[in-house]
């Protein structure tokens, strides 16, 4: 049978909370529909991977990614591991001939992202890596994206993107959190990335960013709050706010266009009812009614994106969050950090090889780059 009709043989790498709570349920739903077959699981903790395999009925469990790739030869590898290892694992999977679906943050730098993209074979139908940006794939986002692209609302003029969440000291007591090397960044990278990605997907290419970051409460290497002002290629302007200091938690996007205001308010995922369209005076009632008809409700979720990814793989299409479609969000976040840490405006396309922010999101900035341990500290650690 051809790949277009057989289930995609899928391996899950990493068996923590995101794998068990989001990825595995989505995979099991599509397995029941005959779209995928979960054939392997990998984790560095043998008890964890064997426990998941036994619970979920996965036939192959291993602590060795390379061995799994050689012995199982999966079609699709789902990375549910920390961002620091995404580059190495994604490149290994791509070189083994598998597609990759990688949890956010995609990887700690643009250099890492470009290395993963280069590992793909590049031809039509060849495997590639894509990123988990599930908020693009709910029915609400699809509906609003189509209307924006068609010009139904007129020109987008001004927008606001808000991810204001709350994380306490116990959250940051976990050793890998709040560190550039292991978490990949603060709320701009690890928390607000989904809302930022959706804003950029709806608004189109950005041209420049002016950012600000602060470490106000938590004893961490990264920021715990950031803001940005954005200018888009079409002239529209926007603000972005990311925080882990906000007891009244909310995720919000608002876009003011010539003929309407579009608002999305939710927390970790949305339904059609979470969107609101307010028309400008004079817009016909029948037009507004058509705008507000979102159709069947498909919540934003890992399942919604995975279903689209599988369809794209079968059709030999590039998935929306692969290649340039995923890179634009990481480039924006890199630019936000560079602007905040250098007190300058950063333009799209500016960060490339030779720029310190291309290889590390902190860019080596004083007060933000991790302290270099002394020789005595190194000996103590060993």
Automatic annotation (TrEMBL):
Domain (Gfo/Idh/MocA-like oxidoreductase N-terminal): residue spans on this chain: 8-116
Domain (GFO/IDH/MocA-like oxidoreductase) ranges: 142-263
One example GO MF annotation: nucleotide binding
Annotated stretches, region: Disordered: 357-382
PANTHER family from the UniProt entry: D-GLUCOSIDE 3-DEHYDROGENASE, UDP-N-ACETYL-2-AMINO-2-DEOXY-D-GLUCURONATE OXIDASE
Native organism: Streptomyces liliiviolaceus
Name of the molecule in the record: Gfo/Idh/MocA family oxidoreductase
UniProt superkingdom: Bacteria
């Amino acid at each position: 049978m051809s790949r277009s009709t057989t289930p995609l043989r899928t391996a899950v790498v990493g068996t923590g909370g995101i794998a068990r709570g989001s990825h595995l349920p989505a995979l099991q739903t599509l397995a029941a529909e005959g779209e995928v077959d979960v054939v392997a699981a990998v984790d560095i903790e043998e008890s964890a991977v064997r426990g998941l395999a036994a619970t979920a009925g996965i036939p192959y469990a291993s602590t060795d990614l390379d061995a799994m790739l050689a012995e199982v030869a999966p079609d699709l590898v789902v990375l549910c591991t920390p961002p620091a290892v995404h580059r190495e694992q994604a490149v290994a999977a791509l070189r083994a001939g598998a597609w990759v679906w990688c949890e956010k943050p995609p990887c700690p730098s643009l250099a890492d992202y470009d290395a993963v993209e280069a590992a793909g074979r590049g031809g039509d139908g060849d495997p590639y890596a894509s990123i988990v940006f599930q908020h693009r794939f709910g029915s609400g986002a699809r509906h609003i994206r189509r209307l924006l692209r068609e010009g139904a609302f007129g020109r987008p003029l001004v927008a606001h993107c808000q991810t204001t969440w709350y994380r306490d000291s116990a959250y940051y007591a976990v050793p890998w959190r709040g560190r550039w090397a292991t978490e990949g960044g603060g709320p701009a990278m690890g928390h607000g990335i989904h809302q930022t990605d959706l804003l950029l997907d709806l608004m189109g290419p950005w041209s420049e960013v002016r950012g600000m970051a602060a470490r106000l409460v938590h004893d961490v290497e990264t920021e715990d709050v950031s803001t940005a002002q954005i200018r888009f290629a079409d002239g529209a302007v926007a603000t972005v706010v990311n925080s882990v200091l906000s007891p009244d938690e909310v995720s919000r996007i608002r876009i003011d266009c010539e003929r309407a205001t579009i608002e999305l308010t939710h927390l970790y995922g949305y339904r059609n009812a979470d969107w609101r369209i307010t028309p400008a005076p004079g817009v016909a009632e029948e037009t507004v009614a058509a705008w507000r008809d979102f159709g069947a409700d498909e919540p934003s979720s890992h399942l919604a994106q995975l279903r689209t990814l599988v369809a794209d793989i079968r059709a030999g299409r590039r998935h929306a969050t692969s290649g340039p479609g995923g890179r634009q969000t990481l480039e924006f976040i890199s630019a936000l950090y560079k602007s905040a840490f250098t007190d300058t405006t950063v333009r799209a396309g500016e960060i490339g090889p030779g720029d310190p922010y291309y290889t590390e999101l902190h860019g080596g900035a004083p007060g933000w780059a991790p302290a270099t341990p002394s020789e005595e500290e190194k000996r103590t650690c060993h």
